[in-house]
Amino acid sequence: MANINLELSLLRTLVAFADSGSFSLAAQLVGRTQPSVSMQMRRLADLAGNEIFERRGRHINLTDFGIKMALQARDMLTMHDRIVDDLRGSVVQNPIRIGIPDDYATIVLPRIMEHLDRLHPNAPMNITTSTSPKLNRLLESGDLDLAIVATASPEKRDVFIQRETIVWVSAPDHDVHRRNPLPLALFSDESPIYRATVAALPELKCPKGNVRDIDIRLRSGSWSVLTTAVTHGFAVATMAEAVVPPHLQIMREADGFPDIGHIDIVLRPTSDSQSVTTAKLIKEILKTFQSESHPV
Is 212 contained in some domain? Predict the structure, then answer.
């Protein structure tokens, strides 16, 4: 019987499917196109001489053989990566570079650090907090390995995390939300939240039902700045519902504030780096978001 050489890239894609449950998500995790992943899995099945996948209705699942193979592949990859780490030295030399908007930092950053410390003990990390548009530019220039960003139009490479409703917020102990013109504190004009808010402004109504005038008093890329402005009665702001502080109130359509829509929160890897480390980070951070009690 001829020797069979199971390429690590095939095994890594198989494990990515086992973790994600779909070819499209597996493709994102390993940095390949979906057709490329399908071809890889057909090649792996040919090499194994057995069926790895089976179709049940509209869904594709691992066969019993495929489940067993995925477990063995995971063990093999773990051993391989440990050997590589030993050859390079026990300490990861290159910083793990992650970008995150400041409004989500306090919610997810502690869990991200916990997971990364378990994955790469004592590894250096560079964590950049900025607006989603600026984080995108850092990804494209290769200055970040991956980032959590808000977007109105997810890209093919994105790993979807959560859809978030955009809401109006005001301070309950101030009457700023009743004023006309309405003072607003908004994200910078590159933000998808800003664009969605501006599109909704013509629907703003006064208590008597008339269209309300607008006074944009502040623009900032910082959620902390907007939250401070709202807290002190300086203006009304818009932000994702998950990051509204508990001391602020959300204004609804019954209060004359129209529906703004939503944004998608995604995990976005840099387009020119799909290392083993980056693939692991994508999976770990995705698990962090899925397990958060206050989803993003």
Answer: yes
